[in-house]
């Protein structure tokens, strides 16, 4: 008896980085956006700590977004706008 696999119609789950990048792109479409990780954590289903670590990565890798550490008052504020 052989096992066969059927291709799934369901899309592959996005990585955490892809999910955050997609969220930032959609929000930055209207212009620049300022945020603290803890305030968007629920929307992207990530912890504030995960978002902070991913923002550092995306700052260098997301060529279509301009990402800047803006200020620090009780948590880092990030500035994101289309590149």
From TrEMBL:
Pfam families assigned: DUF7123 (PF23438)
Positions of the DUF7123 domain: 1-81
InterPro entries cross-referenced by the UniProt entry: DUF7123 (IPR055547)
Domain of life: Archaea
Name of protein: DUF7123 domain-containing protein
């Amino acid at each position: 008896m052989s096992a066969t696999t059927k291709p799934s119609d369901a899309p592959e789950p996005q990585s955490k980085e892809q999910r955050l990048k997609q969220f930032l792109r959609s929000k930055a479409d209207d212009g620049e956006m300022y945020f603290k990780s803890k305030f968007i954590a629920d929307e992207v289903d990530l912890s504030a700590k995960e978002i902070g670590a991913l923002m550092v990565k995306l700052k260098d890798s997301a060529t279509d977004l301009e990402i800047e550490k803006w200020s620090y008052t009780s948590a880092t504020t990030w500035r994101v706008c289309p590149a």
